[in-house]
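Changelog-adjacent note: as of this version, every example in the card shows the full chain rather than a window. The one below runs 387 residues end to end.
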Amino acid sequence: MELENVEAGQEAIARNAALDRARTFLMLIVLLHHAVIPYTHFGHTDPKSWIGFDVVVLATDSFFMATFFFLSGLFVWPSLAHKEAWSFFYDRMLRLGLPFVIATWTIIPIAYYAIALRQHPDTGFVAFWWKTVTRGPWPSGPVWFVWVLMVLDIAAGSLYRLSPRLLGPINHLSLRGRERPAEFFLFLLGVTAIVYIPARVYFGAGRWFEFGPFSVQASRVLIYPAYFFVGAGVGAANFDRGLLSPDGRLAKGARGWAFVALVPYCLLWILIYIKREVLGNPVWLPQWYETSYGLLFAAFSAATMFAILGHFLRFKRSASSMLDLMRAEAYGMFLIHYPIILWIQFWLFDFGIPAIAKALIAFVLTVPLSWTVIAILRGIPGATRVL
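Full-length structure tokens:
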């Protein structure tokens, strides 16, 4: 009976409505991010652009992947507690490894072929695909997240076998965070600043580690594991009595955290202005600049995550949400959306309509198309174990 109660508790955690909605919301933010990038100063690959999209991209790029890793970490320790090691690893290979392999050999080349055609209209897909997988470059697009998460899951499994109580101190902070979320925020900010700032100063913002389709942004190579294992510590035990309690102060103070996030965000824009207008947009920035940017980045990322989680925790008991409708397909939509959105942008390239209209069309079409494709694929027997 005790084991049945534990398993029932695990099922309740797995289907926490607030976290499901937060995850689905973040997936839609990913789609929005990719819908507007061609029309920004940073990723200006279309004749049309709008400065408002730079505002969007600076915000989304600074928090959504870190929050994804935090949410992914929440469920690792309970899963490891009630699964044999081989079962956990097999599940991760099936859920993460297999989609990564399929995506990097098929979905991602199809996506980047749209960009290649814009540059070299006579290039055939077979020739492009062969060059990609043999000579490279072999970009993984957004699915880099999948292989990094798989590595972190495997690392977590090894650490759990070493000591199941390894993340106890973080869980204790989470329990205190029910009434004092600011303390946990400062802890998260301190940890992420320590691992992010030196990497940003040393590598800069734009460098990526790449080996075939395996890639990760160099400056963020430690901040993502930090978010993952902090999330694992929060989810290790007493899930509903800690930081993410629906009755805790985080759930009651979501708006306050949104205002907190605005401060470092505005300061980031001041630094960007200094880089472009005062420093002349150099390739390598002064150490003081990268240190300041790294600290503000870490603060904005943590505060925004708190605001998002607080918002969805506050409405955990609401009867329904539009986000619930695509919960089951959210992961698959993340995997499949990239070629859809890039080909829509390819077809829109020659139209002389405003950037806002192009981005809106790309986003509005990508959501239902990727949703429909995944709904169909999930109808294949056994596909729900992967998608």
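Structural remarks: The chain has two domains: 1-61+319-387, 66-248.
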